[in-house]
Amino acid sequence: MSRFLTEKHNALSPYVPGEQPKDDQYIKLNTNELPFPPSPLAQRLAREAAGTLNLYSDPDCTVLRKTAAEVWGVDPDEIMFANGSDDVLNYAFAAFCDEKHPLLFPDVTYSFYRSIAALNHVPYTEIPVDEEFRIHVEDYCSCGKNVLIANPNAPSGIALPLSEIEKILISNPDNIVMIDEAYIDFGGESAVRLIPQYPNLLVIRTFSKSFGMAGARLGAAIACKELIENLNRLRNSLNPYCINAMTMKAGIGALLDRSYFESCLKRVRAIREDAAGRLREAGFTVTPSVTNFLFVKHPSYPGKEICEDLRKKNILIRHFDTPRLKEWARISIGSEEEMQAVLETLLGLLKEKEDA
């Protein structure tokens, strides 16, 4: 560590992303990516945009916002795009949270929230989920603090119904309620339709999951015009050209190609339900995930050991070495062929362990 790093940043504990192997020898199911490539239209538009890279991209994302507004049923002025949903979260923490406006979020959720809070010097409280990893909305009602909930949550994959989200919004009219909908397209009810009723609602979306654009880095904030103006004040003070031309065009193509989008979601859901059923039959506990991943536990096969054994077979899944999660493993949904290979390998390893 350099002696020049400021004291306020020296204590940061950076987020640790899932492993990104530098070769193709692995079946990679550790970071919840879509197992299918981006839409053919998204790819074509991105290639065409490559010829314009000598020019700055549109800082207002005009066409992208117009396209997204039509798909999501909001006004273009109610959308801001940024460099991935993590970027949106960073702007939101900086804009709306501080010592006088602390934050509440679940203790079992996307761990990057802690890193962003620390970076922005935002005090936060983690509310324990129950033993089944379920969020109880009563813990967030009339709390007098800003609220952040991933819905569906990660790594459990469990979703709250929209009626529960609305209870939090109604009871906290003077605080921002952020709903991170990274996985909403795979299942659950989006809170976007509540935006006209609740000026304290901020919905966060990403193109990394359901649109298959994790490598493009594109995220969105959806909220009333006033909140979006607040976020744009920060974005334009830091990085007004944060969406490159190729990503912008790819986003437009991904939104327009609805048939491809829906076909990918349908495949993921079918693969997920088949895999969950087979794992339960083999004695695994599987949370009721509505996402593109499964969270699993076996009474005689610890999560860390599962991950290590699968890695030896060139299969990557995710383990979280924390007290509440150490027995569990998270398996991203791969293609039909990938999931067949993973399940055959995992169930074979389980049989060897039980026979030993």
Structure explained in plain terms:
With 356 residues, the chain is an alpha/beta fold. It folds into two domains: 7-36 and 259-355, Aspartate Aminotransferase, domain 1; 40-257, Type I PLP-dependent aspartate aminotransferase-like (Major domain) (Aspartate Aminotransferase, domain 2), CATH 3.40.640.10. Helix content is 38%, strand content 13%. The protein has eleven helices and twelve strands. A seven-stranded mixed sheet has the order 2-8-7-6-5-3-4, with helices on both faces.
Key attributes of the depicted protein:
356 residues; Aspartate Aminotransferase, domain 1; Aspartate Aminotransferase, domain 2; 2 domains; 7-stranded mixed beta sheet; 3-stranded antiparallel beta sheet
> CATH top level of the largest domain?
Alpha Beta
Q: What's the story with the biggest beta sheet?
A: 7 strands, mixed
Number of strands: 12
Mean pLDDT: 96
Tell me the number of helical segments per DSSP (H or I, 4 or more residues long): 11
Number of structurally distinct domains: 2
Would you tell me which CATH topology of the largest domain applies?
Aspartate Aminotransferase, domain 2
Name the helix and strand elements from N-terminus to C-terminus, one letter apiece.
HEHHEHEHEEHEEEHHHEEHEEH
Structural class: alpha/beta
Major β-sheet strand ordering: 2-8-7-6-5-3-4
What would you give as the CATH superfamily of the largest domain? Type I PLP-dependent aspartate aminotransferase-like (Major domain)
- The helicity comes to 25-40%
